[in-house]
């Protein structure tokens, strides 16, 4: 995908699935691009573009080497925050499932999660959910 859409960053439900934070199987690859860009429509695989502000687009990007090449994807904490930001389009259940799976992880980092929550403008809501789940 990075060859067809160079600025694409895998996000939301596709990133949740990659990071093993959901049981949901995405029907399309979800990707982020800057608001100023226009998406390129791919016919295969199915894709869905999401527009991010410059600050939200740049934050939390990771480059992961695989057997098939490099994947450009958001890290776990940024993915969780993005799912809450777009929960009206994704569904609250997917965002909550991802958060609960993340909070069960021994490698969770709540400080890092809250840093991205601030960037994504979901800190207030996410803080309440984390307190309710963690205690």
Give the overall shape. globular
Q: Tell me what portion of residues adopts beta-strand conformation.
A: 15-25%
Q: Rg from C-alpha positions?
A: 14 Å
Q: List segments where confidence is low: pLDDT < 50 over at least 5 consecutive residues.
A: none
Query: What is the average per-residue confidence, as pLDDT, rounded to a whole number?
Result: 92
The major pleated sheet works out as: 3 strands, mixed
**Strand elements, count:** 5
Beginning-to-end CA distance, first to last residue: 40 Å
Walkthrough of the structure:
With 135 residues, the chain is an alpha+beta fold. The protein has helices at 12-18, 54-58, 76-85, 87-90, 92-104, 110-119, 123-134, and strands at 9-10, 29-34, 47-52, 61-66, 69-74. The protein has 7 helices and 5 strands. Strands 1-2-3 form a 3-stranded mixed β-sheet. A two-stranded antiparallel sheet has the order 4-5. Strand 4 (61-66) and strand 5 form a beta hairpin. The termini are far apart. The model has no long low-confidence stretch (mean pLDDT 92).
